[in-house]
Structures are given as structure tokens and as C-alpha cells.
Amino acid sequence: MIQFIDVDFGYKRNKLLYKNLRLQVERGHIYGLLGKNGAGKSTFLKLIAGLVFPRSGKVEVMGHVPGKRQPSFLEKIFLIPEEIETPDIDVIAFADDYAPFYPNFSKQQFLTLLKDFDVPLTNLKQMSYGQKKKTWIALGIAANTALLILDEPTNGLDIPSKRQFRKMMAATISEERCVIISTHQVRDLDALIDNILIVENGELIVNAGIDTILQKICFRQFNNEADAAESIYSENNLLGTSAVLINENPENYGRMDTELFFNAAIGNKPIMQSLFTSNQN
Hints:
The protein has helices spanning 41-49, 71-74, 91-98, 107-116, 129-142, 159-172, 210-216, 258-267, 269-276; strands at 2-9, 18-25, 30-34, 56-61, 77-80, 147-151, 178-183, 195-200, 203-209, 217-222, 233-237, 240-246. It is an alpha/beta fold. It has two domains: 28-51 and 69-201, 3-Layer(aba) Sandwich (Rossmann fold); 207-281, no CATH class. The strands form three sheets. A six-stranded mixed sheet has the order 5-6-7-3-8-9, with helices on both faces. Strands 2-1-4 form a three-stranded antiparallel sheet, with no helix packed on it. Strands 10-12-11 form a three-stranded antiparallel sheet. The longest helix is centred in the middle third of the chain and has 14 residues, at 129-142. The radius of gyration is 20 Å and the shape is globular. The relative contact order is 0.15.
């Protein structure tokens, strides 16, 4: 669905944010785009949506060059930015304004999602920030585009709304649809995503499915730090030491710990890159 081929990008002429970036993103998956604040996640999404353009190399999305912003491309994607803007308009009229641009938009689905999210059918200006965010999420899901992109969607959502969000997103995926969710709140995507992308300082560290990750590494809890000496990465906590190790038995793998995996990717970048981005080169 998405290809980055030797992409260079930078906002300043003499400073590149991404250099020789290569990756592939496939249909039928929910990708978690993880990274610290300022790591380049929003820029990555803007390159996919055609809102910024590579200095060199090529970005291709569903056979289109995103930067051309052709209607045949735009009707296939929906981007929910981190910073949302809402007009002084009724929520139903808001959806009616967007519906003509998306051939598969379902108004009934939109209304059902608003109900599930407990969003009132009122003027957007009268809503809280969280209610506005949920309105945008409902709109994006109901557009039924082949590609749905969400940038920090759980910012502004309370705990019950985050749970409902995960339930909605799990229900929306199909073999023909791809969802990319960007966040620095790693735990918000636990049990939802099936593929992980991690960027750090404009560099791709990980692009791998959960199954592949668990075949290559495993997560262990030790009573003390010394027992974790052979690990790729470890960190101390109230229970002892949590560690990431090479999985010596790929046929017997356990449960994914997304937050610990993310910390390992940032803390031991060379090894994690060698394990989980070699197929992109």
C-alpha cells in the first residue's frame, strides 16, 4: 500500500530529518507509529498524505504520488491531525460537509460511533476538546477510506474513551484497509496494533509485525539486575528487573510488552535496527 524509496526530507535546506528512508506498509493491518515527541512521527504521516514533499527519493501510496493531491487519491485517505480545528457548526452539518468527498462515507455509522463515544449532537463549539477529538475519530472511521491515519488520537481522551477507541479501531480493520496510528503514549496501543514502526531522530528503528518480534525476542522478569546481564535491554522496577532478550526458541514465544519493546528500541538502537529493519534495505 505504501512505499518509501530512498526518501530524503528536511524542513531546513542544510539539515535532513529523514535520509535514505526505505519501508513498506501493507494492507490489512493496524500499524502503531511510535516515537518520542519530536522524533519525526507527524512529518512521516504528512509525507504519506502529501502535505510535505521529499527532497529526493519517492513516496508512493496506493499507486499515487501523494504530493500531487489528486482527488482520486484524496478520497482514499483520511488524516486526523494531532491539532484539530472545528468550525462553529452543528455536528451533523459538519459530517454533511465532508461526506461528498468520501464515496464510502456512512452517516449511519458516524451517528452510531458518536453514540458509542457519548458525544452529544450539538454545535462543535460547545463541545469539550475530548468530544471534538472523538467527533473527528468517528468521522474518520465512517469515511471508510482504504487508508486511515491518526496522529496522537488518544490525546484528550479519558480512560473509558481510550478503551472505546481501541474497540472501534479493532472493528474497522479489513483485508483492504490499513490504519496507521501515531502516538508517544505507547500503552494506549497495547492489544490493538499488529505491526510496529518506531522512529527516533528521523531514523527508522523498527518495522515489524508483532509475530515476527516475538519470534526474535522475548520478555523476562528477573529478581535482580545481575540476572539480566545477557539481555538486549533491561530496566529496574518495583518487581525487580524487566529485560528484553534474544528468543532462543522461536516456536515458543510469549506475550508482547509494547512499552518495554519501545524502550529497548530507543535504548539499544543498533541491535534493534539490525533485527527489525533489515528487510527494508
